[in-house]
């Protein structure tokens, strides 16, 4: 992409067309980074970062959980309520629970029962044969107004109900405990529902319980998409990419955040926290414009490609390092690689702080640059779509004839997204042979991505065979890097 402007023989004038077939065709496509959202695509299934998964509705998840509850209840001869407590506490490891408690089924049977409200207990003060005093509200009531947990602590039903409502308002459900001091017994679901009187509270409690059950199940995760009710299930309990079939949101199955390969979940959290703390400094230092290294005219980046061509003197240079683009075939590794100061350990505290900021800015600027490039390339794709629309309407090829451009744009987005997340990985990586290899592969991927981006932006003057070849090279670089460094 050039600086201020780029002259091309492509006429980007929009043309209106009332052909519904065209609109239907393009509305059914997935453009840019959204092309990865086809969860059934062969491309995704071959991708080393992709996790095989299924997207379930709420009722399907409830059926799945209830099947486990029923099986455990039958195998250990316990109530479904206690079975839920055990499954939730042991992350739904059904077979592990059966093995652990097989010889203690009788004990579980006893603990699963709730004491009869007619039985006197140490938690109530008796006032004759049929009454008692609740030690919370200090009211004297008939024994029918009391309820007890398996721990033996008994309080009046009104106090229990109030206790539950307070906990539910605070968002607590499966973690509701006994009211007695220092008692660690959890309140089972059926006990709570038997005493809650307000319909809204019952519904909220059941929603919170369902949320807790899903969160505790290692094979289940809520889709983080806005207002999406889908729960994703995968047996690959690793930091891999899954895609919601409903809202098309891709995310990391392990942590639920935006997918971040090759960076692991813990590292990306540290990186995002650091960016949030230091982003204002980085944004202040990293200007949005740079001077052409040859004629020194001010240039604004208006495309995703880092291969820049000055609109004034036509000099080709790298946006990141301002080096001559012709040398990037051999020196691209030096552009993406951060050069550590070998004498930093002997420098003053202030010098070390400056060096730490310099290192952070090196990685942050490249991280932010690729994020911006993804957005700019979406705009480029829109202009290409408009131009292809016009060509097809004037019988200059069919929509299928131009499909390779959109496939190339999709691949470019996938590759650049991976490249963006290589920078947090490199920032926290310790120096050594492994980091040298990683930065070499990172640089190779970056070089091929920029070549692909350059050719896509000049789509009509790029030979289709050349573009297809560049796609293959870029994807092989991406897959190789992920296979070597993807931490799952």
From TrEMBL:
Record field: compositional bias (Acidic residues)? 1-17
Family, per entry: Belongs to the RBR family. Ariadne subfamily.
Q: Name one GO molecular function term.
A: zinc ion binding
PROSITE patterns, per database record: TRIAD (PS51873), ZF_RING_1 (PS00518), ZF_RING_2 (PS50089)
Give the top-level enzyme category: transferase
> Record's Gene Ontology CC terms?
nucleus
Q: Which gene encodes it?
A: LOC107226865
Organism in which the protein naturally occurs: Neodiprion lecontei
Q: What name appears for this protein in its UniProt entry?
A: RBR-type E3 ubiquitin transferase
């Amino acid at each position: 992409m050039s600086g201020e402007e780029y002259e091309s023989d492509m006429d980007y004038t929009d043309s209106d067309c009332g052909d519904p077939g065209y609109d239907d065709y393009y509305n059914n496509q997935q453009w840019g980074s959204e092309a990865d959202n086809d969860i059934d695509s062969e491309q995704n299934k071959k991708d080393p970062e992709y996790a095989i998964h299924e997207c379930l509705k709420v009722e399907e998840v409830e059926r799945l959980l209830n099947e486990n509850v029923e099986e455990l209840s039958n195998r250990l001869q316990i109530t479904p309520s206690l079975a839920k407590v055990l499954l939730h506490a042991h992350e739904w490891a059904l077979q592990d629970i059966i093995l652990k408690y097989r010889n203690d089924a009788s004990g579980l049977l006893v603990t699963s029962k709730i004491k009869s409200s007619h039985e006197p207990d140490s938690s109530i003060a008796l006032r004759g044969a049929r009454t008692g005093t609740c030690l919370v509200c200090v009211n004297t009531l008939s024994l029918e107004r009391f309820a007890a947990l398996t721990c033996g602590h008994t309080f009046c039903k009104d106090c229990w109900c109030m206790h539950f409502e307070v906990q539910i308002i605070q968002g607590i459900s499966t973690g509701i405990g006994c009211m007695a001091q220092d008692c660690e017994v959890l309140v089972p679901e059926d006990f709570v529902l038997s005493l809650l009187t307000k319909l809204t509270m019952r519904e909220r409690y059941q929603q919170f319980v369902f949320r807790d059950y899903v969160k505790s199940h290692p094979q289940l995760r809520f889709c983080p998409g806005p207002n999406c009710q889908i729960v994703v299930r995968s047996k690959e309990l690793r930091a891999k990419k899954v895609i919601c079939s409903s809202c098309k949101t891709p995310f990391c199955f392990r942590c639920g955040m935006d997918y971040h390969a090759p960076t692991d979940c813990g590292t990306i959290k540290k990186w995002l926290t650091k960016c949030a703390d230091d982003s204002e400094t980085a944004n202040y230092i990293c200007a949005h414009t740079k001077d052409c290294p040859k004629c020194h005219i001010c240039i604004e980046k208006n495309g995703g490609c880092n291969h820049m061509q000055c609109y004034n003197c036509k000099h080709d240079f790298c946006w990141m390092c301002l080096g001559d683009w012709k040398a990037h075939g051999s020196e691209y590794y030096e552009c993406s690689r951060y050069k550590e100061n070998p004498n930093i350990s002997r420098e003053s505290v202030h010098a070390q702080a400056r060096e730490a900021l310099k290192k952070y800015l090196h990685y942050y600027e490249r991280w932010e640059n690729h994020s911006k490039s993804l957005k700019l390339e979406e705009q480029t794709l829109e202009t290409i779509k408009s131009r292809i629309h016009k060509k097809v309407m004037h019988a200059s090829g069919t929509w299928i004839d131009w499909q390779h451009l959109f496939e190339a744009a999709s691949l470019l987005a996938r590759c650049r997204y991976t490249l963006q997340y290589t920078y947090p990985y490199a920032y926290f990586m310790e120096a050594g042979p492994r980091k040298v290899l990683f930065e070499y592969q990172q640089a190779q991927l970056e070089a091929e991505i920029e070549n692909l981006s350059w050719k896509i932006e000049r789509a009509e003057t790029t030979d289709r065979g050349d573009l297809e070849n560049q796609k293959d090279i870029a994807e092989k670089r991406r897959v190789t890097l992920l296979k070597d460094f993807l931490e799952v």
